[in-house]
What we know:
Elements: E1 23-27, H1 35-52, E2 58-63
Parallel strand pairs: 1-2
Amino acid sequence: MANDYDANLFVSFHHNAGGGEGFESYVYPGLRNTKTGSIQDKIHAAIMGSYATHGLQKRGKKKLILQSYG
Length: 70
């Protein structure tokens, strides 16, 4: 959908109820050392700054693992 809209940025928020505690952010593989990675750094820091005041743990900045379904 983001590609169809020619988006410059795609952000998706999820609440994982299946286990694990804390906050983590993901970036598309190969984009960690680009402007996208810089945006991830800023968004991650802002969200974590808020969550940390509520005791949520930092789980880190990660890259997506792409899977093929077929």
